[in-house]
């Protein structure tokens, strides 16, 4: 498997693990304690990773870790649970599946990065497939629940984009940054959980097993893989993988709880999976115009004379792949002509596009002695 394929597979494990939350919560955890469940899921995992990595935030990362922890954990968990209590599970899942569209919009605004067309189509098709799987004809539309679900989705999408924009401090790994966010987010939920739900629940054996799974696999490992993917893959492609969470929940309900899937749900399942596969396809490179390709058969006598070093230097390509206006077609396509004479090349790597003022001797005349050349100005570019 290629490196990109490995990154996609590891990132996809995060929403697959999150998809087990419904089954674990309904079968193992105490009822009516969603906020404390969020605290016990995030805070111990964050403190464990903090003890393992032994990296504390410094400088601006104190407030950055607090902001990311609030968006990805502290605000996301309570709003998600509020939406789940006031809406049917299918409606809440569809609102969460709309995250790729928000991520695509925020990516354009904050990162100036426009997703490819097939990725946007996949971001539209994935929520539609999830809707066919989880929505029911009697699904409710409570306004407060819808607002909470959309706000939770927007918070997670914003946190994902900021995670990509801020990156990580030098010398600090993904696990350390994940520990900062989980710890900060868990601490933010503690006073809200105490005010709304009172004292923490006393867990029994099954509850301890459920909290251990959600804390270690569903939070520490899953969020580390999710943030790792956010730093390596295009964000819209990462967010489309989030559709695996409700699909996994539906599949586990069918396998473990015996919940039937009809033809419409199976169609939606196939549509959502197909959209995720299409979203991960690499973008096709832009075609090169024939006029931009240098001709290797062009005679040396018809080639333009060597220019000074200050004019030979080509600009570094921009992030969008387009060279600035006013440059030659060869510089815009990232190619440079080389002399027909034998000997070392007169140009450096085309990715940097810096050249020296050395001119190769023509095969029709003898090489000039360096001692006969007059000293000239050398470009520093």
From TrEMBL:
Disordered, as annotated region: 283-381
InterPro entries per record: AA-Vitamin_Transporters, EamA_dom, EmrE-like
Protein name (database record): Probable blue pigment (Indigoidine) exporter
Organism field: Micromonospora halophytica
UniProt keywords, alphabetically: Membrane, Transmembrane, Transmembrane helix
UniProt-annotated location(s): Membrane
EamA domain residues: 9-134, 144-278
GO CC annotation: membrane
Assigned protein family: Belongs to the EamA transporter family.
